# Entry
Amino acid sequence: MGQLDNQTAIITGGGTGIGLKIAKRFHDEGAFVVICGRREDVLKEAAADISPDGERVLAVRADIISEEDIRNLVKKTVDQTGRIDILINNAGAMRVNKPPEETSLDEFRFVIDTNVSGTFLVSREVGKVMIEQKSGRIINISSHIRLHRQQIFSRRLLRDFQSSYEHADQDAGHGVGAV
# Structure
């Protein structure tokens, strides 16, 4: 099939946009693809788009800022496939499209919780599996094209967070990268 035969990939925010494109490509390359997001109806449509026969695809409703949802995502993935080889941290909040002086604290917290805390939670839980396997790759989508200041700030925090993982993982047989 392809370069990702017999590998399992989780793609957060995999129901739409860049995440869906990544999921389709990984599936085409032979990976078992697990997509997650907040909207179950969108995920079901995306899963059918990725694989009309339902082969090598799993859609899991999960809010990345919920520890319970993320533990469930990881458990379902490992129960189904036995491993996690790739994590694509793609989910991100871009709802606040106004300057900081017009942004409420709750709106700002939502962006930070999703883009930074959510990425941390997913990486932490998936990282536990990868450490046990002694292999795996985490890729953080951190583009800030067309983003407003809140998103840019949160993505820069994400890059700093990623940096701490890169140093810790250098010799552990797994890695972290950003796109």
